[in-house]
Amino acid sequence: MSDLVEAIEAEARGDFAKALVHYAQLTESGSGLDRVGIFQALARCNEKLGRLKDAGTWRQRAGQGYLALLDAEMARDERQYLALVEYRNAVQDLHGDPSLPAIAKEYAAVLKDNFSGGAEGLTHEGLFAGAFFRTLGDHLTAAKYFFDTAEAMSEQATTGGDPLLREATILAYERAMDSATKAGRADVARVAQMRAYDLKQMK
Fold this sequence. Notes:
By secondary structure, the chain is mainly alpha-helical. The chain folds into two domains: about 1-115, Serine Threonine Protein Phosphatase 5, Tetratricopeptide repeat, CATH 1.25.40; about 115-203, no CATH class. The chain is about 75% helix and about 0% strand. It has ten helices and no strands. It has helices at about 5-10, 15-25, 30-50, 50-70, 75-95, 100-115, 125-135, 140-160, 165-180, 185-200. Helix 1 (about 5-10) runs antiparallel to helix 2, helix 3 packs antiparallel against helix 4 (about 50-70) and helix 4 packs antiparallel against helix 5 (about 75-95). The longest helix is centred in the C-terminal third of the chain and has 22 residues, at about 140-160. The protein is elongated, with a radius of gyration of 20 Å. The N and C termini lie far apart (about 65 Å).
């Protein structure tokens, strides 16, 4: 019987260990996009079984798979964003694992591409990146994503009048200020401090 059908049926009934056995036979078959789907399925089943290290490795493979797709298979912006989602899952799964610093470098490169046009529409990704790199002790990178994301949020907060968004934006600026200070970027810290102060004065 088809490994694909067996895998999907096993996953559907919650037999994730059996699904893994069948999905593992499919990692080198099909199109590039098909293989990404298999990598995601392997990650998903490993996550269900609590095998986060294995899951993180497959999330990384899925991210790499998206980046390897051709323009004819998927638009560049779309595959860059989907790769970012996979890398975000990978670094979460691999938290505390010795392989994390190496994968964090790949994650940083994908982040940079996604944010090359600005942080608008990437609020969650930017805040997560800031928090993630702060946890790693990379305060310069953390400051960049906290500040850039706060700038995009600030525009929405000031025009939309949403008090909860304004509060979150102030906190993002304060996080940026703290990380920038630790990274030795007093100039960025001062700007973040002023932006937070200005938002606090709004009614």
